[in-house]
Design a protein that fits this description.
By secondary structure, the protein is an alpha/beta fold. It is 39% helix and 25% strand. The chain contains 9 helices and 10 strands. It has a 6-stranded mixed sheet with strand order 6-7-8-3-9-10, with helices on both faces. Strands 2-1-4-5 form a 4-stranded antiparallel sheet, covered by helices on one side. Helix 3 (96-106) crosses helix 4 (112-125). It is globular.
Length: 247
């Protein structure tokens, strides 16, 4: 595997509040990295800085061997580094098919017939082949999130950022979304996954990162993190969340 992402000393402050306090991280191509930690630890802010939804206040980042800085072509960056959000962000006035083909046609200049063929294939892969002409209002939360994942994959990203993609779903709908992400991991998609689903993180991730107060406090393979955590803060966090999850 080759390195696809490198972050060095990444900082992000909102006024006097420093949310990221010097994050160092590298991600290999084909690697699935789960990011866990308490609320307010900087997990989602880290992803938003990578996708340039937030402008970092310090540090350096390289993607595919090239630095990306303020002024970079955001459309090109976001095409290669796709992001799926908590709340779907589908266009309500477009059908499922329309949502998926919009960016490939208008950003990548893909011919409509090719974009629609790709969209139908992606919808088959996420189990929604029969929903091409449906509108978002006609879908369940789990279906909307699967469409959002398909829409992101339509740009053929090299890295997929997933920000708590099950947190807005009813519990009975979580499994259908996690199954899609598991399939992507098996296919070798490079992913950074912010999640509060500990069972899922242990099952799908090659590496698990624990963040607290804007720093990466501990990282390792799932067995190391969940069975033999070294850091006392991670031990307390897992004691709380694993009791709830009954792992």
């Amino acid at each position: 595997m080759s390195e696809i992402l490198r972050i060095e000393g990444l900082r992000m402050a909102f006024g006097a509040q420093e949310v990221l306090r010097g994050v160092d991280l590298s991600v290999e191509e084909g690697e699935s990295v789960a990011i866990i930690g308490p609320s307010g630890s900087g997990k989602s802010t880290l992803l938003r800085c990578l996708n340039r939804l937030e402008q970092p206040t310090g540090g350096h980042m390289q993607f595919e061997g090239r630095p990306f800085i303020a002024g970079s072509d955001l459309n090109a960056l976001r095409a290669r580094m796709g992001m799926v959000f908590q709340h779907f962000n589908l266009f309500p006035h477009m059908t499922v098919l329309g949502n998926i083909v919009e960016a490939p046609i208008h950003v990548q200049r893909m011919p409509r017939a090719e974009a629609e063929a790709q969209a139908r294939d992606l919808l088959r892969k996420v189990g929604l082949a029969d929903k091409t002409e449906a509108y978002p209002v006609q879908l369940s939360g789990g279906q909307k999130q699967r469409v959002a994942i398909a829409r992101c994959l339509a740009m053929q990203p090299r890295l997929l950022l997933l920000d708590e993609v099950t947190s807005a779903l009813d519990p009975e709908l979580v499994g259908e979304v996690l199954a899609v992400i598991r399939d992507l991991a098996r296919l070798g998609m490079t992913m950074l996954i912010v999640t509060h689903e500990m069972n899922f993180a242990r099952d799908v991730a090659d590496r698990v990162i624990f963040m607290d107060h804007g720093l990466i406090v501990e990282e390792g393979n799932p067995e190391e993190i969940f069975r033999s955590p070294r850091n006392e803060r991670l031990q307390r966090f897992l004691s709380a969340v694993l009791d709830k999850d009954r792992i």
